[in-house]
Amino acid sequence: MVAIAIYARVQSVADERDHLRDYANWTLERAQLSVDAADETFKQLATEQWNSCSDAHIDRMRELVVNSRFIDGLGYLVDGRIACASWGRSTGTVSIGAASSLLSDGTSLHLDARSQMIGPTAMVALSRGSYVIFVHRDRLVDVLTEDAMTLGLTTREGALIAIKSGLPGSMQEGRVPPSSPNDIRATVQDADFEAFGIADTAQIQQRLMKHLWLLAPLAALTSAILIALIIWVSRQRMSPRSELQLGLKRNEFIAVYQPIIELASGRCIGAEALARWHRPGGAAISPDVFIPLAEDNNLIEQLTERIIRVSAGELGPLLRGNKDLHISINLSSADMASGHFLRVLQEVLPQAGIAPAQIWLEATERSFIDVERARTILDQARARGHPVAIDDFGTGYSNLSLLEALPLDTLKIDKSFVAAIGQDASTSVVVAHIISMANNLGLAIVAEGVETREQESYLVHAQARYAQGWLYARPMSAEKFTSFLQDNARTDAQTLTPAPGTV
Ligand SMILES: Nc1nc2c(ncn2[C@@H]2O[C@@H]3COP(=O)(O)O[C@H]4[C@@H](O)[C@H](n5cnc6c(=O)[nH]c(N)nc65)O[C@@H]4COP(=O)(O)O[C@H]3[C@H]2O)c(=O)[nH]1
């Protein structure tokens, strides 16, 4: 806005200067008309060859003055003195003084011409040969001005010839008004004269307003673009914590659902809710990046709350109509430490008409750092009816002791073990052992990351109960999960194929 205001002022001054230059040019033209008229008159009289102050000569001079719009008096010189003139033989006290400058056509310009007939300072004189022509000073700057401005005419050497309006007293001083910071001036020249125009800076107010009105929308638009750019840049430069906070505040986190399949029947028994971050601009960030970030910045509990609320909102009707269906919610160590998610579930589930048994809680081994605290929270959860699963089993430490120490219902085998089936003999054996051990402990088993029929057959043979993976479906929106369930209800487990368009 400031730049536009400065630009508007600079432009207004430039416009005013152009305006003054036009007037100065007209002033030059106006002065030149008098010089041309004088030239014509000198030439005319030279051809007529008068040589005395006869009545006919005086009449002729008077006739020439009367017929010219540009000259005011004409005198006949004998020995440098005016012997007679267009107004008669009585010349009174008329003097033309010494020539101030010589014009390009050979005419002498006298700025000190004085005549009692017209006034002491009103005349300038032009002389050539035996004649002198008087011109009223005002006539030389007789340009119709439309605004308050000062117009002036000087010789090429800078001696003031005439000035009009604007600066009273300048004529008495007999010099060009000195420049001041408050005025704008323009000067033009031709072979004989220099003309100038001066305006006060106050004169440009109107122009300034005009420019400002024209430029204001541009300034507003530019400012808006700049502000948007600044917001965009600062967003780019935000700390990860601020970005996550903003993302949570703006509900940029959504949930997608990956179906969990009962291996024996092919029936979909539920889905795991997985967080996705839909950032403005479409940049995708993997949960493997933002989940640890949220955990490190104490924002994971807010994210868990958001996923619970979104899942209950989106899948509430589906869960109300199908009491065998469940949704698994992922928990982190901070959730396990505070138990805040239990309060959220207690508030949300009754409102949505969802039974606690329909919300499974998945906690990774990492979240059981404080085993005693974890046990307390999980006991509370189970007491309310939530089944509890240990997630990514096999990727952490002290697995077996955890299985015994914690109140668990389900064990989820990490996808890295499932991926090794048929590839790495030793790991495949571990999978079989985990499944058998879990069965012995009375835990239900969900194998994660099942991608091939070969893995599926192995898991069926090893007596895993449930499976989750791209073989059945990728994580999908609530809407697509609803259609998936309808299809699943109609289709035999063996013929299930990945749902199209899943995310
Ligand atoms: N290669 C392969 N991958 C498969 C297959 N089937 C499923 N997956 C991926 O395996 C991950 C399963 O979730 P997870 O083990 O709980 O692992 C999750 C979970 O630990 C965490 N996470 C996701 N959402 C949440 C959340 O809301 N809260 C918490 N605390 N953690 C979350 O981020 C992890 C990664 O999530 P995703 O990227 O969604 O990755 C998901 C899923 O997209 C398959 O057949 N092949």
From TrEMBL:
Spell out the subcellular localization from the entry. Cell membrane
Class of this enzyme: hydrolase
EC number(s) per UniProt? 3.1.4.52
**UniProt cross-references to CDD domains, sorted A to Z:** EAL
User: Which reaction does this chain catalyze?
Assistant: 3',3'-c-di-GMP + H2O = 5'-phosphoguanylyl(3'->5')guanosine + H(+)
The portions of this protein that span the membrane are 212-233
Q: Membrane topology per the record? A: Multi-pass membrane protein
Q: Does the keyword Transport apply?
A: no
| Broad class of where this protein is predominantly found | membrane
- PROSITE patterns (UniProt xref): EAL
> Which PANTHER family does the record associate with it?
CYCLIC DI-GMP PHOSPHODIESTERASE PDED-RELATED (PTHR33121:SF79), CYCLIC DI-GMP PHOSPHODIESTERASE PDEF (PTHR33121)
Please identify the protein, giving its name as recorded. Answer: cyclic-guanylate-specific phosphodiesterase
Q: Which organism is it from?
A: Tianweitania aestuarii
Taxonomic classification: Bacteria, Pseudomonadati, Pseudomonadota, Alphaproteobacteria, Hyphomicrobiales
